[in-house]
Design brief:
Domain Purine catabolism PurC-like: 37-136
Distance between the termini: 82 Å
Protein name: PucR family transcriptional regulator
Shape: elongated
Structural class: alpha/beta
Largest sheet: 5 strands, mixed
Helix content: 40-55%
Organism: Cryobacterium algoricola
Strand order of the largest sheet: 1-5-4-3-2
Domain PucR C-terminal helix-turn-helix: 461-519
Strand content: 15-25%
Length: 525
């Protein structure tokens, strides 16, 4: 393999100063200038004698002047302000043409440029400004040709790499070699999938810090669920990230980093790789969809009790089924996130075979999990999902466990995204579900006579009845909690019996009123 290549260097100010026929002389010693000040690109040369030419200038330009604006006797502050405006505008160099209006360059201008870190060159009388502009233009044209030549060669090398057996890895490796940058691919969970050079994030704490930063950025892009790109600077590097895949069906994130920002030619090379990588991941996704159909069929067989068939097929494809007893988790992601979720789960199966089996069932995703599934469930909650989780069960009990998980999922949707375990809601009892069904209106209707009486006579029959039933129909403990005499409680309960036409001495009547209280969910009716 040929040695690593990198884009041709930009034609900096140093190359322009090195043109012998121009005779340019640097007046600000390089040692007193910021690092790389003479290596900045010169995209154009402009001339002006205005006191403030910045409205007509752009960054990366060189300004030439004959000093007409300095004809009057000026203070040092004027020179400093003039130079500061040029530097803030992004001007890379100031050229002073001597012997046109005055002999030599003003000392105050030299001092101002030195203090503000702006290179200052003296342009001799024999060198017309147009010659400096032409020389800079020739350098830009030379660069453009070199960049185009490099970009064509880089894209050709990348296209050949894509034809190798592991086309995606070979493509990313070639992109890294061509740019002289590291290149990384992050999967749907935001985890690092592969990086080139392979030891990029190994060892040095600075490298690990860059990895942590780019992982956070990749995870944020993925959570948005839309095509996006971003650039951040950290540790002297510029990190660029771009999502891969279609809108709402993202496949991952491509990231690269190195010193400085990429120019247009380099960006075009990166764009071609993004297209190739996206195509490769889409092809992988088509294969994943075929696997998904197989998974759904295996889940159907598993629910039907054909455990041996599923165990054998799963063992050949992904690894053994999770050890019994398992817990069933169910979630119902938005349709546009369903593909992304299954791709994420496929990655987790590849990382830890034998700990997870999952499949789609209509719009649901059903997971069979072993005892160590806590971290995976936390990751799923991080995707903003509602999940229902069953009790532990053996595979022959899977239909029952699936019903539990679906019931827990329904309860989960009553609150924020998160996990609801069936064990939690089962401990609340059967009657606790009445408040979550249409029985609430029936309960309110049952208690209406008591609610009307309380409203008209300012009594407290409903609340008294609830407290009395909570104390198993005992008047003394109920009176203590209510802060009244037990005979008062007895009188209120008797009045409630009369209004409802029920005998609370029977278990059936007590159970029916207790259910009405739970279903109505309101002591006041």
């Amino acid at each position: 393999m040929s040695p690593p290549t990198a884009p041709p260097p930009l034609p900096g100010l140093r190359r322009l100063l090195g043109q012998p026929d121009l005779g340019l002389r640097l007046l600000t010693p390089e040692a007193g200038l910021p690092p790389y000040a003479l290596d900045q690109p010169v995209e154009w040369v402009h001339s002006s004698d205005l006191a403030d030419p910045t409205p007509f200038l752009s960054a990366h330009q060189m300004l030439l002047t004959t000093g007409r604006q300095f004809a009057e006797v000026l203070t040092d502050a004027f020179y400093v302000d003039y130079v500061t405006r040029l530097r803030d505008r992004g001007i890379v160099c100031l050229g002073f043409g001597t012997e046109v209006l005055r002999s030599g360059t003003p000392d105050a201008l030299v001092a101002a440029c030195q203090s503000r870190g702006l290179p200052l060159v003296e342009v001799p009388y024999e060198t017309p400004f147009i010659a400096v502009a032409r020389a800079a233009g020739d350098l830009v044209a030379e660069l453009r040709y070199a960049r185009n030549t490099w970009a064509l060669g880089a894209q050709r090398a990348i296209a050949l790499a894509a034809l190798r057996p592991d086309g995606l890895s070979a493509t990313l490796s070639e992109l890294s070699r061509q740019l002289g940058h590291w290149v990384a691919l992050f999967d749907m969970s935001g985890a690092l999938d592969r990086v080139f050079p392979r030891d990029t994030f190994a060892g040095a704490s600075a490298s690990r810090g860059a990895l942590d930063r780019v992982q956070r950025e990749a995870a944020q892009l993925i959570r948005r669920g839309q095509r996006a790109s971003t650039s951040v600077s950290t540790g002297g590097e510029t990190l660029s990230l771009q999502t891969l895949g279609r809108r709402d069906q993202l496949r991952g994130v491509l990231a690269h980093g190195g010193p400085g920002e990429l120019d247009q030619a380099s960006q075009e090379v990166v764009t071609s790789v993004i297209a190739l990588a996206g195509l490769a991941l889409e092809q992988n996704s088509a294969l994943d969809r075929a696997r998904g159909l197989l998974r759904s069929g295996l889940l159907h067989a598993l629910l039907g009790g054909d455990i041996d068939l599923v165990q054998a097929t799963s063992g050949e494809m992904w690894g053994p089924l999770p050890f019994e007893p398992v817990r069933v988790a169910v979630t119902d992601p938005a349709p546009e996130r369903l593909d992304a979720l299954t791709e994420f789960l496929e990655l987790r199966v590849e990382e830890s075979p034998g700990h997870l089996f999952f499949a789609r069932q209509g719009g649901l995703v059903v997971l069979c999990l072993d005892a160590g599934a806590g971290p995976l469930l936390d990751e799923l909650v991080g995707f903003g999902l509602h999940l229902g989780l069953s009790d532990r069960a053996r595979y022959r009990e899977l239909p029952h466990a699936l019903a539990q998980a679906r019931q827990a999922l329904e309860r989960s949707h009553e609150g924020a995204p998160g996990i609801v375990e069936f064990d939690v809601i089962s401990r609340q009892g059967v009657l606790a579900f009445l408040a979550r069904t249409d029985a609430s209106e029936v309960g309110r209707a049952t208690l209406e006579p008591l609610a009307a009486h309380d409203a008209v006579h300012a009594t407290d029959l409903i609340h008294t009845l609830r407290v009395w039933l909570e104390h198993n129909g005992k008047f003394g403990p109920a009176a203590t909690e209510l802060g009244v005499h037990r005979h008062t409680v007895r009188a209120r309960v008797s009045q409630a019996e009369a209004l409802l036409g029920r005998d609370f001495g029977t278990f059936h009547a007590r159970a029916d009123i207790w259910a009405a209280l739970l279903a109505s969910g309101d002591d006041a009716g």
